[in-house]
Design goal:
mainly beta, Porin, 16-stranded antiparallel beta barrel, globular
């Protein structure tokens, strides 16, 4: 996201307040999605418009010793569908204290540390293998898939909960992060690592992450991935396992490739396969997508996604779906 920096130093007369640099950023996305599937309920073959918007405000200050502290607020620009945010409309709010030597300490409502160590398959907005996909796949009868199947090959799960996280500085290309969330009734833990290097003139990044909710029915996730550039193409491979008690034990793997063409256009292709060892249900996903820079800060994106769900215990619940997503987004 391109940040618009205000050349502002908030000189506050009251003693004890620091002079701060203020950064403002925002985006607005408007799009349309059309799906065709085998569902037999009233919600089959849905066409709908959608939108998304956020405003980001960051206050930061750097001391003479090189210590930087900042407060960041991410606000939803429209009504949220999550009941816990419908009143405040605050997506994330956190305090970061960092320096080149110590790394970063992040306190507040934010993602788990594992979210910073994920390998995402190349794709535009709306791609089925991306984190902002609009489609919620159901089985043929219209009920949710219950076996933990996902089109995200890294199995990433986010939760903007009150979290304490620490990230090391880069040490020879390696970085580690850890976070703990303690609500009083449960303690979520998360860790991740990344390593960026060069092999035969090509840059590559390895990532690994794990998280656990440590509840009575414990859910654990482990993910691994690698991304690299070769011959003008960006390539990524990732795999993950997510286990929740005896309910599901899902393994998801995927691969993707992206190319940058002339005049600000990028094209992508990705595929993922998810299989639950408990139920033997499977989900196969293929996504072809593109994005185009209309002007600095303004872009168009389109994606064609196909899904194939197979219920091992009831073939009458199988569902094949096709989806087209187009959107335009402004970033400030």
């Amino acid at each position: 996201m391109r940040k618009v920096l205000l050349a502002t130093t908030a000189l506050v007369a009251m003693t004890g307040y620091a002079a701060a640099d203020v950064s403002l950023a925002a985006y607005y996305e408007f799009g349309y999605t059309s799906s065709s599937d085998d569902r037999t309920d009233a919600s089959a073959d849905q066409d709908a418009m959608f939108s998304d918007a956020e405003y980001h405000i960051t206050f930061s200050e750097t001391t003479d010793s090189g210590l930087t502290f900042s407060a960041k607020y991410e606000l939803e620009g429209q009504a949220s569908t999550e009941a816990t945010r419908s009143a405040s409309q605050i997506d994330e709010a956190s305090l970061t204290i960092s320096s080149a030597e110590m790394g970063s300490l992040v306190l507040g409502h934010n993602d788990m540390a594992s979210a910073s160590f994920q390998t995402w398959l190349p794709g535009s907005r709306g791609a089925a293998t991306a984190d902002d996909n609009q489609y919620s796949l159901k089985n043929k009868g219209g009920t949710a898939l219950t076996s933990g199947l996902t089109s995200l090959s890294n199995g990433a799960t986010y939760g903007d909960t009150l979290t304490t996280a620490y990230f090391t500085p880069s040490l020879g290309g390696a970085k580690i992060g850890i976070s703990i969330t303690d609500s009083g009734t449960e303690e979520d833990t998360s860790m991740g690592f990344s390593y960026t290097g060069d092999l035969a003139g090509s840059a590559f990044t390895l990532t690994g992450a794990t998280w656990s909710n440590n509840e009575t029915t414990e859910t654990d996730n482990v993910s691994l991935g690698v991304s690299f550039s070769i011959g003008g193409a960006d390539v990524a491979l990732s795999t993950s396992t997510t286990e929740s008690g005896t309910t599901y034990d899902t393994t998801t793997s995927g691969a993707g490739i992206g190319f940058s063409l002339a005049d600000g256009m990028n094209v992508y292709a990705a595929m993922a396969k998810s299989e639950d060892d408990v139920t033997s249900d499977t989900l196969d996903t293929v996504s072809i997508s593109m994005d185009y820079s209309i002007a600095p800060g303004l872009s168009f994106a389109a994606a064609m996604n196909t899904y194939s769900y197979e219920d091992a215990s009831a073939s009458t619940s199988n569902n094949d779906a096709d989806e087209i997503v187009v959107s335009i987004q402004a970033n400030f």
